[in-house]
Request: fold
Amino acid sequence: MKEMMKNYWKPTPKKWRRLGDALLASATVLAIGGVWQYDSLKDIFTPTELKVLIITSIGLGVAGKFLTNFFKEDTSEEK
Reply:
């Protein structure tokens, strides 16, 4: 676990940074869309289900962005 925490502060590879940003952006768009269309979606889902869906979307996006920070650039030199 300590080794993983050390990786958190190291540079994140570009592909993982892009994945984390994409997850966060997608979750944000879904959450904003859910809030914006809340009144229309109440006909399909209960208010409690909508709140759970919106909060889950935000949580997964933030968790995805956070977890991608544990990947680090490969700095080993090949000889």
The chain is about 70% helix and 0% strand.
